[in-house]
Write a structure and sequence with these properties.
Number of strands: 7
Pfam family, one: DUF1963
Helix content: 10-25%
Oligomer: single chain
Strand order of the largest sheet: 4-5-6-7
Protein name: YwqG family protein
Distance between the termini: 20 Å
Organism: Streptomyces justiciae
Strand content: 15-25%
Number of helices: 5
Low-confidence stretches: 7-11
Shape: globular
């Protein structure tokens, strides 16, 4: 189980719960090393769950199952920070070029009038470790495309309208980096990303959240 996240009133979208606690569960393979959660394999999705506990809900502590070794408990604090979408996402491409298919596939092909902006954006966009809401900080390309391709009935190439449309429906719920204090590492420099569609977030359907892992 990853840290419970209590919602702060500032800095999060209106769809987020105004009270209560979010609990994030991820099966790390302790008891079945050959079983891993993979966004491309729906049969593994049960290994990553998000549970919402409304405020004032009676709860009882539970012991860690004997087959599992508990992770150290690490207290966290939070602060508000700015975040920005990846420039490969359709909303960014649309804002900059007016065409979601027009973004160059290599930095050397960046239109001349956007070169200074792209360079400044890269300098200002800092890596964030643990995060609630906002825009994801991907390790290997936009995570919205990972979950969109897994959701669609057939795989689409980057820039295909169905893929762009589906990617825009998903927002970041939370991301967790490796943490030496908690003895949690996802590969060498990996990250766990929970995403959810905006309509499912507004309706508190957290069972519809999906986990993307990038390493």
């Amino acid at each position: 189980m990853l840290p419970p996240c209590r919602r702060a009133p500032e800095g999060l979208g209106e769809e987020f719960p105004r009270d209560g606690t979010l609990l994030f569960f991820y099966f790390d393979g302790q008891t079945h090393a050959d079983t891993v959660v993979c966004i491309d394999d729906p049969e593994t999705w049960a290994g990553a769950q998000v549970l919402y506990v409304p405020e004032n809900t009676p709860v009882l502590p539970a012991d860690t199952p004997s087959a599992l070794e508990p992770y150290p408990r690490v207290e966290l604090t939070a602060q508000s920070e700015q975040s920005a979408p990846d420039l490969w996402l359709p909303q960014a491409r649309r804002a900059l070029l007016g065409d979601t298919r027009a973004w160059p596939r290599h930095h050397r092909d960046t239109p001349a009038h956007l070169t200074a902006f792209v360079r400044a954006f890269a300098r200002l966009r800092t890596r964030v470790e643990h995060q609630i809401s906002g825009h994801a900080c991907p390790v290997q390309g936009p995570v919205e495309y990972d979950v969109a391709n897994a959701t669609l009935a057939e795989r689409h190439e980057w820039g295909d309208p169905p893929l762009d449309d589906e990617a825009e429906r998903w927002v970041l719920l939370a991301q967790f980096a490796g943490d030496h204090d908690a003895d949690m590492m996802w590969g060498d420099d990996g990250m766990l990303y929970w995403l959810i569609r905006t309509e499912d977030l507004a309706a508190r359907r957290f069972d519809q959240a999906r986990l993307v892992i990038q390493t």
